[in-house]
Design a protein that fits this description.
Distance between the termini: 18 Å
Number of strands: 0
Radius of gyration: 19 Å
Order of helices and strands: HHHHHHHHH
Oligomer: single chain
Helix content: over 70%
Structural class: mainly alpha
Number of helices: 9
Strand content: under 5%
Shape: globular
Length: 198
Amino acid sequence: MISLFVPGAGPLHRMPAGVKLAGLALCALAISLYPHGAVSVVAILTAATAAYPLARLPWRVLAASWWRMRWLVLVLGGALWVFAGADAAVVAVGRMVSLLLLADLVTATTRMGELLDVLRRMLRPLRRVGIDPEGVAMTLSLTLAMIPVVAGFAERVREAQRARGVRLGVRAAVPLLVMTMRHADDVGDALAARGLVR
């Protein structure tokens, strides 16, 4: 499993995982429910960005987080700008990017094992209705771990395109899908070999 954790000794690294998840949930509610304007969204984006150096994370971590969201900003932001106006585009994209930055910040400062422990404790009451908390926690952790993997596959496809001097456009999704499915099979085989799945 690929971890998003970046070792460090900053204040967020020392904070309990449960506190960070609760803070992320509260921030998500506040960002989603508050009637933001362009100015307040830009302020939130600035605060979320400033949280990375305050957490003593390397600048490359912040740069990588923004770089992963470039197509979201360009495509979604551009579409909303055309069809809904500049203010609506800034507010909608700003909210989404702020939440993703904060989620990245939590995963970068928290070990996957700690996140899993918190998720198991939170989901334990659901066992009474037939839901397996360990299975749900593992599914969520695998989903988080797949994000940088798929991003890496996409970068490899783009590099191959540049090396061949071709642009596949939408057809680039085919090799990306093949690589992703192959990796999913490998992960499934590894989990089965360890007796974690049947």
